Amino acid sequence: MAWRCSGRSNNDLIRNMRRQGIITSDRVADAMAKVDRVNYVQRPGDAYQDSPQSIGHGATISAPHMHAHALENLLPYIRPGATVLDVGSGSGYLAAVLHHLVSPAPSPDNPNPPQGKVIGIDHIPELVGWSKHNLEQDGLGAALQDGRIEMIVGDGRQGYIPAGMSSFSASQGKLIPSTAPYDAIHVGAAAPTLPQALIDQLNAPGKMFIPVGIYSQSIWEVEKTAAGHVRKRELMGVMYVPLTDPDRQRNGV
Ligand code: SAH
Predict the structure, then answer these.
(1) In the annotation, is 6 catalytic?
(2) From atom 19 of ligand 1, which residue's Cα is the shortest distance away?
C-alpha cells in the first residue's frame, strides 16, 4: 500500500515505491533518485517518510507516493525538451524531479540531449524563496540561473503565460496566450472545480494531473489530444491542501 513505502534513505524510499508498484518506470525511479527529499523538508528526520509534511504557511510537501503517481501519470508528456508547469510548487521538490526528466544531463550515449523548461508557481512568496534555496542546495543553481527552472510568485489558478507567448486581444481587452505552452501541468493543491485557464494552456497533445474537490477530493487526468479534443477522467480519492487565496490558506479556512 502507498503509505507503507517509508524508507531509511532516499534510495530505500524509491525501492519501496517500486516494490509496491507505485513507480513502474526506470525514468521516474532514476529522476527521483537524483533528488534527495531531505533538501526539501523542514525536519530532516522525516524526509524518507511516505507522508505529507508541513512546510509552513498552511502548506505541505506532498507524500512521495503522490509525487510518484503524478510523475508516472504524466510520463509520456515529460520527455526531454518538454515544457512543464507545476502549480502550487511549494518546496520545489517536484520541480527538481521534473527538471531531471525534461532537461537530462549529457551522457556518453547522448552528449547533446534536448533541454526543456519547468515553471513552478506558488502564491506564497516565502515558499517561492525557500524553494529556490532548496533547489540551489540540491545542486540546481545553474538551471535556475539559465532559466531551465523558473520559480514564480503568482496565482496558479490562472496558469502562467511565459514572456513572448501572449498577444493582446482587442475583442477581449486583455492579454491572451498566443500558444498553449505546456506539454504537462501538475497541480499540487485541490481546485474546487477544474480551472479552464489551465486546460487552455495545455498543449495539443498535453496532459494535466490535478486534484479537484472541496470536502471530497479526487485526482483528475485531463488529456488534450493532438486534434485539441479534451478527455477528462477521475482516477483516485485524495486529500490535498486547497488551491485558494493566500489569506484563506494562511488562516486555514
Ligand atoms: N507540491 C508542493 C506543495 C504542495 S502544497 C510540494 O510537494 O512541495 C500546495 C501548494 O499550493 C502550497 O505551497 C500552496 O501555497 C500552493 N497554493 C495554494 N493555492 C495556490 C494558488 N491559488 N496559486 C498558487 N499556489 C497555490
Answers:
(1) no
(2) 243
Task: Give per-residue pLDDT as tens, 71-98.
Answer: 999 999 999 999 999 999 999 999 999 9
Q: How far apart are CA 132 and CA 140, in angstroms?
A: 9
The phi and psi torsions of 121 (rounded to 5 degrees) equal -130, 135
User: How far does the centroid of ligand 1 lie from the alpha carbon of residue 62, in Å?
Assistant: 10
Instruction: Report whether the peptide linkage leading into residue 44 is cis, meaning its omega lies within 30 degrees of zero.
Output: no
Beta strands in 47-181 (DSSP E): 53-56, 59-61, 83-87, 117-122, 149-153, 166-169, 174-177
* d(C-alpha 138, C-alpha 6), whole Å: 21
* Options 62, 89, 91, 103, the catalytic residue: 62
Residue nearest to atom 17 of ligand 1 (CA): 88
Q: Phi then psi for 132, rounded to 5 degrees? A: -65, -40
Distance between Cα 202 and ligand 1 center (Å): 19
Give pLDDT tens digits for 135-167: 999 999 999 999 999 999 999 999 998 776 666
Closest CA to ligand 1's atom 7: 61
Predicted TM-score (pTM) of the model is 0.95
Q: 66-251: which CATH topology?
A: Rossmann fold (3.40.50)
Q: What are the phi and psi torsion angles at 41 (to 5°)? A: -120, 165
- Cα separation, 76 vs 115, in Å, equals 16
- Ligand 1 pocket: which of 122, 160, 186 to mutate (most atoms <8 Å of CB)? 122
pLDDT of residue 1: 45
**Nearest protein CA to atom 6 of ligand 1, as residue:** 61
